[in-house]
Design goal:
It is a single chain. With 153 residues, the chain is an alpha+beta fold. Helices cover 52% and strands 20% of the residues. It has five helices and six strands. The chain has a two-stranded antiparallel ribbon. Strand 3 and strand 4 form a beta hairpin. Helix 1 packs across helix 3 and helix 2 crosses helix 3. The N terminus is likely disordered.
């Protein structure tokens, strides 16, 4: 049996769709259009359109009604969206759960900030952050003067 790329899913022996195409379709529906989805995904509009077209070709369905101003899901597109959104939400949750247990951070963290900013904003945040990551060593430089952060040690 030939190996398929890990980002593809084989369905009914004849159709292959890609995970990123499905995610792109979901984003287009949520954003209400290709342009908004492209901006959120940090992709070009042509890439987003191509991904949705590839998904439509793989499934043999028209998923979106396109006009010059609007993109709306077809009946089947809406059904696919409503069934896939919870599944992809579950995948996101699984990944988040796995990465949340990666453990505390270790090492050195150097922070340079203006005194006024640190007093108003960093103090409470850093205290909580330090409690969460006791393996971190902090080097904090508070100075209101302009500094060259690249060349200073």
């Amino acid at each position: 049996m030939p190996l398929r790329p890990p980002h593809s899913v084989r369905y009914h022996r004849t159709m292959t769709w890609r995970f990123e195409d499905m995610l792109t379709f979901l984003k287009v529906v949520e954003a209400g259009g290709v342009t908004a989805a492209a901006a959120e995904l940090k992709l070009s509009k042509s890439v987003v359109s191509k991904r949705v077209s590839d998904l439509e070709d793989a499934l043999g369905l028209s998923l979106l009604r396109r006009s010059t101003r609007h993109v709306t899901p077809t009946e089947r597109g809406r059904s696919l969206y409503e069934q896939m959104r919870p599944a992809f939400g579950a995948i996101d949750q699984i990944v988040e759960n796995v990465t949340d247990h990666a453990g505390p951070l270790n090492g050195h963290l150097r922070i340079t900030a203006p005194m006024s900013f640190a007093t108003m904003h960093l103090g409470p945040i850093l205290a909580d952050f330090a409690r969460l990551h006791p393996g971190l060593e902090f080097a904090i430089n508070l100075d209101d003067r302009i500094q060259d952060l690249v060349s200073s040690d």
